[in-house]
Amino acid sequence: MAKTKLANDGMPKSLVSRFQRIMIYIVLVIGAFFSLFPFYYMFVQASQPSSEVLRFPPHLWFGSSAWANIQGLFANGFGRSLFNSAFIAVVYASLSVFIASLAGYAFAKFRFRGRSVLFGMFLLVLMIPYHVTAVPLFQLMAKITFFGNPTWISSYQAVILPALANPFGIFLMRQSMQALPDDLLDAARMDGASEWRVFTKVALPTMRPTLAALAIYSFMFQWNSFFWPLIIMRDKAMETLPVRINALVGLSIIDYGQLMMGTALTTLPIMMIFIAFQRQFISGALAGAVKG
């Protein structure tokens, strides 16, 4: 008979391996519970009336006031804020990814004087607190005219344009483009392809995971942005979702049911996007980690 291999403590190795897997699964289940329970609790409280949200012991199952909370939110302009956030986030993500891919391609594949210095200046921008630039940026937006409008205050472009040249996006695309073989690009040039065609037909298709990751990051950045829209959007009709949810917190009366529902509806699109594109997000974020 074949002898069973034993571990150092005298137990069969198969039994030890099975015990280790069970312990790993237990730890993962516990970690998943603590990670997902706050989201579950948020959706449960979003379905409760305001008087029941802060009760003790708390409700752990869904209530019957979800539709009433949704109606109260949209009666207070939540629908307009939802459109504002979606429009700003989609337009910003599209333009930011396009600009970052162009800059990343140039920094990775072109040789020109001052390239390293210019790229280093982009990285230095990451060290400057965003709040430091708020006052001069607000003054700039107040003085710019656009198609006859005397100011950019309370306009979509005032939120979208200032952060388009995202240093993180440029850095991410540059690192990914560096892994693209130069021989592949040279072969396309020898076949008569223009530089624009090489970029759009050869370079970009190979960067799809990184482009998807950057698009998700850019969308989340603007979707969750609060500080700058709070300052620049002076018109109530132009408020974004984070600003509108903050406005639900009154000085004396707070409808906690609507507040939780607004938070849940704001969080839900981000959760759905990440679940749908989590593989692209992870692979794209790691694409430039190891240079091939």
UniProtKB/TrEMBL annotation:
SUPFAM superfamilies: MetI-like. The keyword Cell division does not apply. The chain crosses the membrane at residues 21-43, 82-105, 117-141, 153-173, 211-233, 253-277. Signal peptide: none annotated. It is found in: Cell membrane. Its main location: membrane. GO terms for cellular component: plasma membrane. Keywords: Cell membrane, Membrane, Transmembrane, Transmembrane helix, Transport. It comes from the Bacteria. GO terms for biological process: transmembrane transport. Residues 82-277 form the ABC transmembrane type-1 domain. Belongs to the binding-protein-dependent transport system permease family. This is ABC transporter permease. It comes from Herpetosiphon geysericola. The lineage of its organism: Bacteria, Bacillati, Chloroflexota, Chloroflexia, Herpetosiphonales.
